[in-house]
Design a protein that fits this description.
By secondary structure, this protein is an alpha+beta fold. It has two domains: 16-162, Peptide deformylase (Peptide Deformylase); 180-273. A hairpin with a 7-residue loop joins strand 4 (87-92) and strand 5 (100-105). Helix content is 43%, strand content 17%. The strands form two sheets. Strands 1-2-3-6-7 form a five-stranded antiparallel sheet, with helices on both faces. It has helices spanning 30-46, 127-140, 151-162, 180-196, 206-240, 249-273, and strands at residues 50-52, 62-66, 72-84, 87-92, 100-105, 108-114, 120-126.
């Protein structure tokens, strides 16, 4: 962050700066502190539950939440690692000051983040806090809560905005992502690689065993390449859609790590159990 001075501002519809994907904070300096303090002032002045930095014109991955006891939770570079449950409740946001709609959210989330000094933390949030964090993280990806609702609800909001001569453009995050094909192919390869570990139980010919071992080596490399493709495609998808919580790096890394670990374990076992020279 290189701003020399911080100005106080609140972005409201139809200001399109809200759609700018935010970048991670790399410098934990005085400017960061000033932005966070300015965000708190805006929250207080508008009696808000929280803000993402982009709502004040700063495209950084910063979320500030005002908790029920009046204290503030500062989330720098937040990443949702896992989520469970679902709940739908009414939400409103400063960006659409006249709009209040039912929005589906995860009931409980686990995330990692950094504080203003660059220290890493874990947080398990549920209920109102979890919903607020999710709504603000939507903004860091360049989206609003309109990307989370049904087509009918979105059209109703668009109509209400159109009455004031304003019509939003929203590109929804798909419920089905083609990147799951990468995982599906990798899972099938890992399954067949696992089966080859039992080949010696059937006393196969050395040539057959060599073929299985070759398959294991090629399969292991293929899994690695598939996970690289999965990550690249996921990042492209996250940039394409205005709000895509499931595209977060933390979610994708978890899926990748499990399969890469399985490939290493099965590949190592294959060296001792399938390798004809073993």
């Amino acid at each position: 962050m290189s701003d020399k001075s911080v100005k106080k501002e609140l972005i409201v519809y139809p200001d399109t700066r809200i759609n700018i994907p935010c970048t991670d904070v790399r410098k934990f300096d005085e400017t960061l502190f000033e932005v966070i303090d300015m965000m708190k002032e805006v929250i207080e002045e508008n009696d808000a539950e929280g803000l993402a930095a982009i709502q004040t014109g700063y495209p950084y991955n910063i979320v500030v939440i005002r908790q029920e006891d009046g204290s503030y939770l500062e989330l720098i570079n937040p990443r949702i690692l896992s989520a469970e449950g679902s709940v739908t409740e009414k939400e409103k946001t400063l960006y659409y000051p006249k709009i209040e709609i039912d929005v589906p959210r995860y009931e409980k989330i686990r995330l990692v983040y950094e504080d203003r000094h660059g220290n890493s933390h874990h947080l398990i949030a549920e209920g109102k806090l979890a919903r607020t964090i999710q709504r603000k993280i939507d903004y860091t990806f360049g989206g609003t809560f309109l990307a989370k609702v049904s087509k009918e609800t979105r059209e109703a909001v668009e109509k209400a905005l159109a009455e004031d001569g304003l019509v939003p453009e929203v590109e929804l995050c798909p419920t089905f992502s083609k990147r799951v094909y990468f995982l599906s192919v990798a899972d099938k390869l890992l399954f067949f690689m696992f089966l080859t570990l039992f080949a010696k139980l059937f006393n196969p010919a050395p040539e057959t065993l060599a073929t299985f071992y070759t398959f294991d080596k090629i399969g292991g490399v293929a899994v690695v390449l598939l996970m690289i493709g999965y990550f690249i495609y996921g990042q492209w998808e996250a940039k394409k859609y205005t709000s895509c919580t499931s595209c977060q790096v933390g979610n994708m890394i978890g899926s990748m790590a499990k399969r890469l670990l399985a490939a290493v374990v099965i590949g190592t076992a294959g060296y001792f159990l399938v390798n004809p020279a073993g």
